Amino acid sequence: MIKVTYVAQDGTETTLEAEEGASVMRTAVSNDLDGIVGECGGSMMCATCHCYVDEAWQDRAGRRSDDEDEMLEGAASEVTER
Q: Beta-carbon neighbour count of residue 28 at 10 Å?
């Protein structure tokens, strides 16, 4: 299992265990974590689940996919967002 720490806008941290290969959004939603909507179910159609990846984790998280880049052009602007 992988541990993912979610940090809310107010600074509250929640750490959840995720299965390898599971999306950050699906892990949050399946654990009823507030603040992650995932309106489209992870189809990259709405950006309601986009998140910021701490710069210290950029190498491990990997580069955004072309699909992520395209979706986030209209919703976000930082390279740490997913």
A: 22
